[in-house]
Design goal:
Blueprint (H helix, E strand, L loop, with lengths): L16 H32 L1 H4 L3 H30 L1
């Protein structure tokens, strides 16, 4: 039978410097990997919308419509606000 004497070296409360260092390095690498994955996702999205940048196909039409809406909104809203609150 194993002796039930308290062994402080095997408790979870004591950690060596190397264990702490390994955990810190693992956390840093996990954060770095997550940033890298986000960069890949961004580039995948941008390459998927590449047709929109060149105004080709369905994404191109969506980009043209969205750009036209933004321009119309930017020019129309100040005029409408001026008419509503000044005159």
């Amino acid at each position: 039978m194993k002796d039930t004497q308290f062994d402080i070296e095997n408790t979870t409360e004591t950690r060596t410097h190397s264990q702490t260092y390994k955990d810190a390095v693992a956390a840093f690498e996990a954060a770095e990997q997550k940033r890298e994955q986000q960069g890949y996702a961004t580039m995948l999205m941008a390459s998927g919308l590449a047709g929109g940048f060149h105004e080709k196909g369905k994404p191109g039409r969506v980009v043209v419509i969205a750009r036209s809406f933004c321009i119309l909104f930017a020019f129309a809203v100040p005029n409408l606000l001026l008419i509503r609150y000044v005159f």
